[in-house]
């Protein structure tokens, strides 16, 4: 068991970061990571020896997340996404900080598979091959999905939200 813990432990911060990016809630993210680790430990014997442990754990985490999301939709449970705080970025100017905040807000508007893929590649710095293992699709599919996701996000940020002004008397 100590050997398993030694392999998994260095990956927990990445799992936690990905969960927080998906859920925007620290407690829910910790619960997701806990469920992921529990599932990984109970299915350790099913892991391919010599396989990519990081991709395997992220695939489990994504599947647990999707299961929880489907369950919440069936229950009609609403999740408050506006509880996020501002994004600290002291090195960037205020304009860049606003663009980053808008991009992250727009990220939530993307379909789940595009959002997950952008987070895995952009935030977790997974290779296309690792992401392909997480999504269980060919690398070429990952590349085309990533291109569409980036384009959708770019278009959403550039289009911006239109503000409707009212006349106040």
From TrEMBL:
SUPFAM superfamilies: Sigma2 domain of RNA polymerase sigma factors, Sigma3 and sigma4 domains of RNA polymerase sigma factors. Belongs to the sigma-70 factor family. ECF subfamily. This is RNA polymerase sigma-70 factor. It holds the Pfam family PhyR_sigma2. It comes from Rhodopseudomonas pentothenatexigens. One of its GO terms (biological process) is DNA-templated transcription initiation. Residues 104-153 form the RNA polymerase sigma factor 70 region 4 type domain. GO terms for molecular function: DNA binding; sigma factor activity.
